[in-house]
Amino acid sequence: MALTGLEIYKHLPKTNCKDCGVPTCLAFAMKMAVKQVSLDKCPHVTAQGKAALESASRPPIQLVIIGTDSNEIKIGNETQLYRHEERFHRPAAVAVRVSDTLEDDALARRAEAIGRLAFDRVGTRIRVNLVAVDNESGSAERLEKAVKLAGEKSGLACLVMSAKAGSLQRAAAALAGRRPLLYIADPAEAEAAAGVAKQENCPLALRANGLEALAELTAKINALGVEQIVLDPGSRGLRATLEALTRIRRLSLKGFRPLGYPAIAFAADANPFMQTVEASTYIAKYAGVVVTDLVDPSQILPVLTTRQDIYIDPQKPVAVEPKLYTVGEVAASSPVLVTTNFSLSYYSVEGEVEASRVPAYIISVDTEGTSVLTAWASDKFNAATITKALKNLGLETRVSHRKLIIPGLVAVLSAGIEDESGWTVEIGPKEASGLPGYLKRQWKSPN
Ligand code: SF4
How many Å apart are CA 201 and CA 225, to the nearest integer? Predict the structure, then answer.
C-alpha cells in the first residue's frame, strides 16, 4: 500500500534545508505521499533511507511490459481496489485469439482483421493490443510459422499460448526482440518455460489450478530470476474468474508478494454478446490482460469503451480545451453552435456536425468539463459565460451573421443570451444526434 507522509518523513534527513525546493522535510514527505514529488529531488537522503523507502513503496503489483516500440503495453503497478480512491493507472491489454490450426490464408485474414480493430472515441484512439496465437495444433513448427504470420499481418505485439515450453522457445526465437508475452498452459512445463522467458527476455504467464498452487508456482519461478510474471489462476467462466481476479487483487494489495502480479483472464462464452459482457467485466475487475475471440467490431468496441471509461481519472472530468473549433471548410455564412467542454458533449456535437457535411463553428465553453445540463444547473453554462466565449473568441469578425445555435436542452437561456450578446438565438435539437437533420433542413444560411 502507498506510504503515508509520516511514514516517509521517518526516513528523510529532517534538516529542513530546502534544497528540494520545499520549505520542510515534512512538507516534502506530504508531497511525496501524493506523488507530487519524487525522492530523487532530495539530494541528502541516506542510502539506508532510500533503500527503506524504495522497498516500502514498491508497488504491490509488479509492472509488466509486453511488446516494444509503438506496440509496447505496460500492465500492473496498480495500488487500489476502488478507483474512486485513486485512478487505475495501466489499462488492461486486450488480446484477440487466433488458432494455429487455421490454414495460412485464413490465419492471415483473421490477423489482419484483428489489427484493424481500432476506433476513435472522444478524441482518443482505442484499439486491441495483442494478437493471441494459440498452439492448438500442438506442433512447435506450426506455432513458429503462425506467430510470424500473425505478428506481421496484425502489426500487433503477440501473446503466444502453448502447453509446451519447447514450442514457446521456437515462437519466442521467431519473434526475437519483439517481447511477446509467453503463456505456458501446463504447470509442469513452467520451469522450462521460465528458462525460455529469461533467455529471450520475455514476460511469462503462468497457469495453475487455484490460487494456492499459483502462489507456490510464482515463488518458484521468481526464485529462478523471472520477475515479469502474469497470473492465470485456472478459473474459467464469469463467476469463478471474477472471484479469482478479485481475490488476487485483494491479496496483492495486502502485500502478499507471490500474487503481486497482473492477471490474465479468458472470455470464452459461446455467445459472442455474453463474451462481450465477460471481457468487459474482467476489465472492470481486475485483469491485466483479457483474451477474447471477438473480431466483429460491434462486439469488441464495447469492451474497448469499457476499458477507456474504467481507466480515466474519476476525480477529473474528461474535458477538451475550451476554444473555437471548426468542422469542414467554414465560411462567413457557416452556422455557429455552442456546447460545453465536457469531452463527450463536445465530441458528440463534432461527430454529428461532421456527419451532416455542413461546415460549422463550434464554441466549446469552459464549464470545467461538465455536460450541458450539469453545467446549466451549476450556473457554469449561462447567458454570461456563453456571451463571454462568443466575444472572446472573435466570432463577430469571422461570420457575417449573428445567429447562435444553442442545445435544445437549455432553450430557457435564449432570451438572456439575446439580451447580453445582441445575437439571435436559434434553438437546436435536444440531442446531438438531431444535428445532421437540423443543419440540413432547418439551418438557413444568411447568404
Ligand atoms: Fe528535507 Fe531533503 Fe528537502 Fe532538505 S532536500 S528539506 S533534507 S527533504
Answer: 11
263: helix, strand or coil: strand
The third-level CATH classification (topology) of the domain covering 5-56 is 3-methyladenine DNA Glycosylase II; Chain A, domain 3 (1.10.15)
Cα 36 to ligand 1 centroid, rounded to whole Å: 15
Q: Average pLDDT of the chain?
A: 94
Choices 3.40.980.10, 3.40.605.10, 3.20.20.20, 3.40.718.10: CATH for 64-310: 3.20.20.20
DSSP 413: G
Structure confidence at residue 446 as a pLDDT band (50, 70, 90): low
CA 98 to chain centre: 23
Between the CA of 35 and the centroid of ligand 1 the distance, in Å, is 16
44 lines ligand 1 (CB under 6 A): yes
Does the Cβ of 28 fall within 6 Å of ligand 1?
Answer: yes
**Of 328, 381, 337, 388, which is closest to residue 358 (Cα–Cα)?**
328
Query: What is the distance between the alpha carbons of residues 29 and 52, in angstroms, rounded to a whole number?
Result: 14
Q: Verify whether ligand 1 is closer than 6 Å to residue 19 (CB atom).
A: yes
> Pairing relation of β-strands 64-66 and 73-75?
antiparallel
Q: What residue ranges do the domains of the chain occupy?
A: 5-56, 64-310, 324-441
Query: How many whole angstroms from 49 Cα to the centroid of ligand 1?
Result: 13
Q: What is the pLDDT of residue 445?
A: 65
Number of alpha carbons in the 13 Å side-chain half-sphere of residue 121: 14
pLDDT digits (tens, 9 = 90+) for 41-70: 999 999 999 888 877 667 789 999 999 999
Give yes or no on whether 5-56 and 324-441 have one common fold. Answer: no
Residue bearing the CA closest to ligand 1, atom 3: 20
What pTM value is reported for the model?
Answer: 0.78
Q: Are 114 and 101 in contact (CB under 8 A)?
A: no
Nearest residue (CA) to ligand 1, atom 1: 25
Beta carbon of 15 within 6 Å of any ligand 1 atom: yes
Atom 8 in ligand 1: residue holding the nearest Cα? 25
Domain 324-441, CATH class in plain words: alpha beta
Strand, helix or coil for residue 42: coil
Q: How far is the CA of 58 from the centre of ligand 1 (A)?
A: 21
Taking every pair of Cα atoms in the chain, the longest distance, rounded to a whole number of angstroms, is 78
DSSP category for residue 92: P
Atom of ligand 1 nearest to the CA of 41: 5
